[in-house]
Amino acid sequence: MTIIRQPSLFSIQELYDMEPTQKYEAIISAVDLDAIYHDMAKKSRLGAPEELNVAAMIISVFIRYVERIPTIKDLKKRLDDDIAFKLNCGFLVSDKIPSEASYSRLLTKLSESDALEKAQEKVVLQAIAEGFIADDTVAIDATHFEARDQAPPKEEKAKPEPKKRGRKSREERDQWLQEQAEKEANLPLYDRKIEAQLDASLTELRDGVPRDPQWGIKKNSEGKNTFWFGYKGHLAVGTSSQYILQALFSSGNLNDGKAAIPLLKGMNECLPLSNLRYQTMDAGYDFEPIYTQVYRMGQQSIIAYNKRNESEPIGFDKYFAPTCFREHSYRYESYDAKHETLKYTNPKECKDCPLAHEDICQKVFKMKITKDLRRYTAPARGSKAWNTIYKRRSAVERVNAYLKEFFQLNNVRHRSGKRAQIHFDIVTLMYNASKLAADRIDAALKQQQAA
Questions:
Q1: Is the pLDDT of residue 178 over 60?
Q2: β-strand 300-303 against 278-281: which pairing, if any?
């Protein structure tokens, strides 16, 4: 019998096992280096001439993350000691190795421009154009990483004045409500309720994100609270392609749900994702405005339900499917996209039920998802199709692990949130560039095998 050898998928790990020259060229070629260099280079011919190779400096900063070099000091030492590495980064033999201060000034320029953000978007658009991104599902989640700074000492808050006992008069209550409304209106965008983000522009959402290191809190797998001082990275990842389609950097205390709408609007306004149908998230994103934003995009929300002191619905099961007189759940059958209606059919137990012949049991239930976007999704909660789509959410967790294990996301070497964001932007850019390079090599290998 003939043995058929299946071609294996070329992965990022195999890309990293290649020779440095080939590896660097494959990864850096996926990035629009000319646009970044144009933003960083000297704009005027006047003044002191540039003595440093700025283009090679940018490449070496990117390669530092590929080679997992922990600090700029170690990068400079590697450039001094390894002539092959120096040449692979684009420096000439005669070029002077930049000092740590020169690299610091380069990173400052990067932090003051949007060159990395534009480069990231171009990589994703190129992957879409080459057919590597055709996902129908996106997974959204956050990951935390610690700051380099130590947490500041806790400030003791003054004790509030004791409240006046008893009920407020109508005039006092009206005045209090007016003060609360004015206070809410004057708050920064991310300190307001999530509903305020629905009508905000993408530029306002991106510019208003808090970026200073703060204390964050999260429950671990054992149900215990874990604390860290630092930041959060919020990612929207294609579940099949595993590209980072949108990324957001924030303080560690930002609620995960408040980062969802900026990510969703970014995908909707910046990327041509015609096949996209589902947005899947965990229970930390179970907020009504997020369902509304996904619905406005013409897609479906596959979000775990987070029960918040809610009573059991009468006449419905825990997945909000209708129940019969004997409290058996109706079965989800199909979704009518034209009328936005879920169709439920009678339970299996109806076959042997004595009430089935009494004409008092309804055989079919139809439920419009717009009745309650949070409870009714397509496919319906609890169905096999819903569970299958929700399991795809693990893709974003794998990408989070890649960023921390292979791309030094945990290795923040800067002391301010503005500079730490550059670290996050380069990490996500190098991940996507490596993914695109691996996909291109895989496509070339398949084409050679087919020929």
A1: yes
A2: parallel
Q: How far apart are CA 19 and CA 282, in angstroms?
A: 40
Per-residue pLDDT band at 417 (split at 50, 70, 90): confident
Are 203 and 265 within 8 A, CB to CB? no
User: Residue 395 to residues 235, 281, 418: CA-CA distances in angstroms?
Assistant: 11, 11, 28
Distance between CA atoms of 163 and 440, rounded to whole angstroms? Answer: 66
Place of tokens 């560039």: 433
Name the burial class of residue 24, with classes exposed (0-12), middle (13-18) and buried (19+) by CB atoms within 10 angstroms of its CB. Answer: buried
Instruction: Name the percent of the chain in helix, strand, coil, to the closest 5.
Output: 45, 15, 40
Integer Cα distance of 77 and 72 in angstroms: 9
Bridge partners of 138?
238, 279
- Mention every residue, 6+ apart, whose C-beta is less than 8 A from residue 322: 315, 316, 329, 330, 344, 365, 367
Q: What is the pLDDT of residues 189-214, one digit of tens each?
A: 999 899 999 999 999 999 999 999 99
Q: How far apart are the first and last CA of the chain?
A: 23
For 393-439, what is the HEC assignment? CHHHHHHHHHHHHCCCCCCCCCCCHHHHHHHHHHHHHHHHHHHHHHH
pLDDT at 44 exceeding the cut of 70: no
Judged by DSSP in three states, 196 sits in: helix
Does an H or E element contain 157, and which?
none
Identify any residues that bridge with 227 across adjacent strands, giving them in sequence order: 217
H/E run at residue 150? none
